[in-house]
Specification:
single chain; about 450 residues; mainly alpha; Proton glutamate symport protein; two-stranded antiparallel ribbon; 22 helices; binds aspartic acid
Length: about 450
Amino acid sequence: MRFFKLKPHWQILIALLFAAVAGVVLGKGGIGDSGFGRFSLESCRFLGSIFMSALKMVIVPLIVSSIVTGIAGLGKMEGFGRLGIKTLLYYALTSLIAILIGLAVVNVMKPGLKDGVPNPEIKKMFDNKAAELGHSPDKKVSDAAERASKGSKTVIDVFKSMVPSNVIKAAAEGQMLGLIFFSIVFGAAMIHMTGESADVMRHFFIALNDLMIAITKGVMLFAPLGVFALIVPVMAETGLSTLFGTLLKYFVVVLLALGIHLFVVLPILLKTIGGVNPWRHFVAMKEAMLTAFSTSSSSATLPITMRCVVDNAGVSRRTTSFVLPLGATVNMDGTALYECVAVIFTTQVLGYEMSLTEQFAIVFMALITSIGVAGVPSASLVAILIIFKSADIPGLDPAAAMAVLLAVDRLLDMSRTVVNIFSDSCGAVIIGRSEGEKGILEGNQTDVFGKGF
Ligand code: ASP
């Protein structure tokens, strides 16, 4: 079939478009309530969850083997501290810029107001939700919050989990930081091993790493089907009326702010600090971006992000294996930006004018909480709840506000996840270049219609 002869990203894009149409047909007002409709949606959910699990299944062995080979292959630990400092600086700087963009856009566009006063329709949605919930929290909200809170932590917890008391448990629970720390120690210790056993270990980890990359490529062969299965239920549940309804302006404001960060700020950093052509980097990252969009999970996308950064952008495995796994949990520009917009939007709807100091407190909290947020769908919810609880906004019912935000969350989640992983990948390129690496983004990727794309 001609479809299978297309490049993988075209296949994924076509699957995405078909899924959007199928989702609308199967959604509210469509045929979703018929027996056939329910069967189709359930089948999609089943296939989608298998695809997500297949992506996640390679994460632990991939991270461990790539960090161990990255360090041990280098033969020395020299320069690792420098790499760490640069990485953390990059994470902090880009997250802060992202939040400030969110803050500026939400203050200029004021999505919570209508004709200069709190939008009465949105306010009514908040009040209705609050009345509906009474004292019993919305099942959807608490489910999403529970799902997202698994793995989300406070900053203190983040530091604590860095040195795991049980590495197998850390791996089983997806505690990325603990795993990264253990792998660095393991690789560093291997440098000092000599003799035959040292060679065996080295060969083993190199082979394991190659094998995991091969499995990732294998999983991606099913990406069009997986993406289709993930997107159909999302579109069916969200529905066009929710999107183009009362919350449209909020939706547009978030997308605009994310767009500025993705298409203006990060490319400027790539060009000025990294000295590379940003367009080439977009082309290099296309498959990872499409996967992030479809899965709403930076963690599940990590294997693909790593592959794109190494194979397409040409960053060394040493830099990639350090910057990306850490970035997937710690660096979340899109999430930090979203938290800020969501909180300020809520205060606008409630007619509460925040002082400059209060707004800066929100900026700070968004920066700190985005570090502890896990790279899973709807994880921002937990951070927003934490901010709501500590910000003490008059008249706010956190659960009701969350229930309203949740209505348009999934599509915004898909978009901010793209920004999250793209920022990580830009970090890898910029840091790789600053380490003097040659061959980054020097291929023929600008050739849109030819071989490179
Ligand atoms: N889904 C996002 C991610 O995985 C996190 C969030 O903002 O909810 O990167």
